[in-house]
Amino acid sequence: MKQDAEGNWNLVRTANGETAKALLGPVAEAVAQLLVEGNFELVKQCEHPDCILWFYDRTKAHKRRWCSMALCGNRYKAAQFRKRSSGESV
Fold first, then answer.
1. What is the model's pTM?
2. Per-residue confidence at 53, pLDDT binned at 50, 70, 90?
3. Cβ within 8 Å of residue 72, ≥6 positions away
4. Mind giving me the DSSP string for 16-78?
């Protein structure tokens, strides 16, 4: 258990060991929580053409496009900028 800034106690799960079962436990728990509590309309695939990742869009407007703006979003936008700068059509 861990205490937060307001003094409330929260349950924190920690994987013990390096086995596949120990490492996949938190993943299985997250999937089960998504199945029970999640909104499947907010599960989206990254829009970068080379990316295979999916994500849960928690943004206020639900307009997120990339699994990571630092990776896929930046790569896509940089590629579009290079196309525009070189005179190619987008």
1. 0.60
2. very high
3. 46, 47, 48, 51, 53, 66
4. -SSSHHHHHHHHHHHHHHHHHH--GGGEEE--STT---EEE--SSSS----S-IIIIIHHHHH
